Q: What sequence folds into this?
């Protein structure tokens, strides 16, 4: 029953997506306003079908319906309810099904937010998004079908991957990452619609920027939570290893970040139009590439899914996407000519252009290092390994340059700058940066890149706080006809600016944390008997003995450890090993003593109850918690930047409805100005 109902809903979703994509694209190109209501119906149908299919699968998981193939693959009667729910995205087929409902939700949200805008443009945008939905729904109905039936029906299942039910971050990390990946479909649809119509006005940039920022936020939070999961669950003493699947999420983040900075130049100087669109299209292609890397099984990674049959299908889709993007940019490129030039190298637009080039250079080097082993194996038959040293050598200098530009850019004006004024604004932040480096040297810290990062962090922080403190000034004559709209629009720009600088502070926290926790980490390992002490830094780790227990889905053996901190505080920690019924090897769970200054990280390697010994790996990571604590700043800043200015939209819409004499009845835009921020 569940298999039939779920698969039927998937087929209905495929039908709605196919019909909506066809009607939207054809109707939009023919400028047929009557197409839009049909596209909206298909959007609703696609979302409801995907939602229904996911609800059916969740019901099958919760009721242990092992006649459904996916439940037989990841379900278990012993699995706690919360992990039964999240096991929907613990394996390939379920994750693609979950992907479908997120996509349906995004497309519906975009349609509802912009439903009162020009139907022809909306038809093209929604038609493009539904065309992407056709691909993913086809996967669910075909090579990644989770609703196959199983015969004979097993009495129980293996449960989800032990690593994925070993920590609560499994509940929130994958959905955040999926929301980031899938969210890139919306800006892709907007950009394609603008290119198909061949009308490149300013107003389409506002919704394009806003929806990209939403996806960027989810992707950022997903990446950080993923590094936290690796740190808290895997027990290897780190949070980022340039794993291929980690890189897959990092690549679109880089290009989306470059895009959002490029839009500033487009908005102020009418420059970088072709470059800006290329970045948003490239970000979507990279999300699909990342999905392929995660789900095709071609990479050996703790994050990736097992071998599957969807790889060739993904490769075909990626090839089609690249062809469409290149063709659209080639055909419409002549419409994307810059309306002004860079007047001075000492200007904000120059720093943003350099910033973009650095982001793209980092993207290329990470992509090359990630794909090179596959290229080498396919061409030479030899599988090589590209490890952490390559990525650090290539990416770290670029990251430091990005940090430097985060300070220089806001300090410079648009157009051209008075060198004397720049020097006056430069010396205080530079002095603070120098003081920070001096303080680090006095504290005994060494290392070129770490000290440079700390100094630049001080430099950028001073500039960012100064920019946040600047008052908003809008100087216009009230006799100007567009005063209200311009006033509210200026306030919206100030809000975006304010939110952006808060995000910058969060990024600075991440830079400082990564530099400190990577360069000044302390590590030791050893085997101790009950009552003996392992020393690391100023900490004394005393082994007290073993405890064991049984939980619904696993058993465990934990060590009791007394930790005496350098300041004399005494606490207990309990690194442990968890045993899952259908796994031959235990899954270790480290214990972490967290403070704002540093983390003491203990991982249990082995134990002997007979001899009363235990072997530990121990690390001290300075400032590592600042990575996770940056999330509130990223969320707050992004929410401030994307919060809709309803009064500004209403004023703009009112002016749109009463065009000046001689104005064209159809605005030269890709999306109606009602979406402007």
A:
């Amino acid at each position: 029953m569940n298999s039939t109902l779920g698969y039927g809903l998937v087929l209905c979703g495929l039908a709605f997506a196919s019909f909506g994509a066809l009607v939207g694209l054809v109707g939009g190109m023919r400028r047929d306003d009557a197409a839009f209501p049909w596209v909206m119906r298909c959007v609703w149908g696609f979302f409801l079908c995907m939602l229904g299919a996911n609800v059916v699968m969740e019901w099958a998981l919760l009721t242990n319906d092992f006649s459904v193939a996916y439940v037989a693959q990841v379900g278990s009667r012993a699995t706690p309810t919360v992990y039964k729910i999240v096991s929907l995205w613990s394996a390939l087929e379920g994750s693609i099904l979950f992907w479908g409902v997120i996509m349906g939700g995004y497309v519906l949200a975009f349609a509802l937010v912009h439903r009162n805008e020009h139907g022809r443009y909306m038809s093209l945008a929604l038609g493009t998004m539904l065309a992407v939905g056709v691909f993913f729904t086809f996967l669910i109905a075909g090579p990644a079908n989770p609703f196959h039936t199983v015969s004979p029906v097993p009495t129980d299942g293996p449960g989800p991957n032990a690593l994925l039910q070993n920590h609560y971050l499994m509940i929130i990390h994958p959905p955040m990452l999926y929301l980031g990946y899938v969210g890139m479909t919306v800006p892709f649809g907007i950009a394609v619609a603008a290119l198909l119509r061949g009308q490149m006005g300013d107003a389409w940039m506002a919704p394009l920027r806003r929806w990209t920022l939403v996806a960027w936020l989810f992707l950022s939070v997903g990446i950080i939570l993923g590094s936290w999961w690796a740190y808290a669950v895997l027990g290897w003493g780190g949070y980022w290893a340039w794993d291929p699947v980690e890189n897959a999420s990092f690549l679109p983040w880089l290009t989306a970040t470059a895009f959002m900075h490029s839009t500033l130049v487009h908005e102020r100087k009418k420059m970088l139009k072709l470059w800006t669109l290329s970045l948003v299209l490239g970000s979507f292609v990279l999300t699909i590439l990342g999905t392929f890397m995660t789900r095709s099984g071609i990479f050996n990674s703790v994050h990736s899914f097992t071998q599957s049959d969807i790889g060739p299908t993904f490769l075909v889709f990626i090839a089609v996407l690249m062809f469409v993007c290149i063709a659209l940019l080639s055909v419409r490129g002549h419409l994307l000519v810059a309306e002004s030039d860079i007047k001075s190298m000492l200007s904000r637009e120059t720093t943003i252009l350099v910033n973009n080039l650095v982001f793209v250079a980092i993207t290329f080097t990470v992509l090359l290092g990630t794909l090179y082993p596959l290229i080498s194996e396919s061409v030479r038959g030899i599988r090589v390994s590209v490890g952490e040293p390559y990525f650090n050598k290539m990416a770290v200098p670029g990251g430091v340059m990005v940090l430097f530009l985060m300070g220089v850019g806001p300090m410079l004006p648009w157009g051209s700058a008075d060198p004397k004024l720049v020097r006056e604004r430069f010396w205080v932040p530079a002095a603070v940066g120098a003081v920070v480096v001096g303080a680090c040297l006095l504290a005994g810290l060494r290392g070129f890149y770490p000290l440079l990062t700390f100094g630049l962090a001080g430099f950028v922080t001073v500039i960012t706080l100064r920019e946040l403190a600047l008052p908003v000034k809008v100087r216009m004559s009230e006799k100007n006809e567009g005063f209200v709209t311009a006033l509210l629009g200026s306030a919206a720009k100030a809000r975006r600016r304010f939110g952006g600088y808060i995000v910058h502070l969060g990024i600075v926290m991440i830079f400082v944390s990564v530099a400190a926790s990577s360069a000044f980490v302390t590590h030791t390992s050893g085997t101790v008997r009950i009552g003996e002490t392992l020393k690391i830094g100023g900490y004394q780790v005393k082994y007290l003995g073993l405890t064991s227990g049984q939980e619904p889905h696993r058993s465990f053996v934990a060590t009791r450890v007394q930790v005496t901190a350098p300041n004399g505080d005494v606490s207990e920690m309990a690194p442990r090993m968890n045993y899952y019924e259908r796994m031959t090897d235990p899954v270790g769970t480290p214990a972490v003593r967290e403070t704002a200054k540093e983390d003491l990280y203990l991982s249990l390697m082995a134990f002997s109850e007979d001899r009363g010994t235990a072997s530990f790996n121990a690390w001290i990571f300075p400032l590592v918690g600042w990575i996770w604590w940056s999330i509130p700043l990223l969320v707050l800043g992004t929410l401030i930047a994307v919060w809709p200015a309803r009064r500004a939209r209403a004023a703009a819409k009112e002016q749109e409805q009463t065009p000046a004499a001689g104005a064209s009845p159809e605005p030269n835009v890709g999306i109606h100005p009602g979406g402007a921020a």
